Amino acid sequence: MTNRPAYRTIPVLDQRPGALPVPLGAAGSTSGHTRDTLGRPLRDLRISVTDRCNFRCSYCMPKEVFDKDYAYLPHSALLSFEEITLIARQFVAHGVQKIRLTGGEPLLRKNLEVLIAQLASLRTLEGEPLDITLTTNGSLLARKAQALKAAGLQRVTVSLDGLDDAVFKKMNDVDFPVADVLSGIAAAQAAGLGPIKVNMVVKRGTNDHEIVPMARHFQGTGVVLRFIEYMDVGATNGWRMDEVLPSAQVVARLQAEMPLVALEASAPGETAQRWGYANAQGDYDPRLGEVGVISSVTQAFCADCNRARLSTEGQLYLCLFASQGYDLRSLVRTGADTDRVDDTALAQAIGNIWQGRTDRYSLLRAALPPEAQGNGARRVEMSYIGG
Ligand code: SAM
Ligand code: SF4
Ligand code: SF4
């Protein structure tokens, strides 16, 4: 008898749907300021560099689903840095000006600085450098901030759902302390990765009592705190409308403690509504800074949505709530060596896909009765396409 190890079958839980066929052919433009069927330009590309994370936020990667048996993508399925840059170059040719690296936790991807340096060499249609930023849970930021800045990263957004350790640990579900995220934010500020944004997902009944303490903590520090409505992304977080605290109520709670004045949007397609802290005269005081609210549930911003998302394995998603993406990896992995990629075919495919885009999930959801909201078709997980 041979001494073979005993294998057991591990049931795998794969939430990833199959890809849509890529529309090839010369119909799509290969460059220029491409617009979709609703006239929306393509400005912002979000790239997920890993589907893994060291946190288990209940609203994103709940422990019960993302456990030791979860089938994460094998390394060979991930886009390499060269493949990402090659694809990003063609998005930039269609008008992209801003790239956000995300995940999963992007700082878990080894040598991420190498990718940042490659992306930093791209130029917009107007010949300008790209705006390159990154969203992180902050756990590894203290260690990496300097190297990220040196590679060409301009800014970071850090997620932090409360200042109270017990509340934050309940949200991240891996016992991660607040102090370590705050050190990461301080290191990013010291490295010049500002203005830093801090994102707080608000779950009614779980961390909404942290709204005012968070605002007080970051007021006057140069950090822009943004409150995000808990969204019905993915299919695993057990979303319920009664756990959403509408942004209007967030603003009302802040107004009761610290006077605010409405500010103009900083850019077209900006998702956050901005509020500035007022001085004793009731005028915006830039030294006190600002907060933002992102009303993804109660106020759809689809009309201006100029964002495309590239998944960890190279699928293009046109909406955060889409259930399928277009397999761009198949176009860049035609041979063992990516130098042989047909750039024109890739550029045309991106043009075809964006020009045919009709997505406006939040607008359509807003028209549904409350009991039907959040009960949509099987949707892709946020950790896979990135937030
Ligand atoms: N791991 C990184 C982080 O947490 O910042 C990057 C990826 S995470 C998916 C990107 C953003 O999505 C985070 O700010 C996170 O809070 C947000 N997010 C995840 N699930 C969400 C949900 N159900 N509703 C609202 N925002 C969510
Ligand atoms: Fe990880 Fe970010 Fe999702 Fe939290 S929100 S589980 S940190 S990917
Ligand atoms: Fe954009 Fe989709 Fe969100 Fe609407 S629902 S703003 S189309 S990502």
Strand content: 5-15%
CATH topology: TIM Barrel
- Overall 3D shape: globular
Give Rg in angstroms: 21 Å
| CATH domain class | Alpha Beta
Number of helices: 11
Sequence of strands across the biggest β-sheet: 7-8-9-6-5-4-3-2-1-10-11-12
Please outline the major beta sheet: 12 strands, mixed
Oligomeric status of the shown chains?
Answer: single chain
Helical content band: 25-40%
Q: Low-confidence parts lasting 5 or more residues at pLDDT below 50?
A: 1-15
Give the bound compounds.
S-adenosylmethionine, iron/sulfur cluster
Domains counted in the coordinates: how many? 1
For the record, give the distance between the C-alpha atoms at the N and C termini, rounded to a whole number.
52 Å
Fourth CATH level, the homologous superfamily:
Aldolase class I
Averaged pLDDT: 89
Backbone structural class: alpha/beta
CATH architecture: Alpha-Beta Barrel
Number of strands: 12
Give the SSE string. Answer: EHEHEHEHHEHEHEEEEEEHHHH
Quick summary of this structure?
Helix content is 26%, strand content 14%. It is α/β, with parallel strands linked by helices.
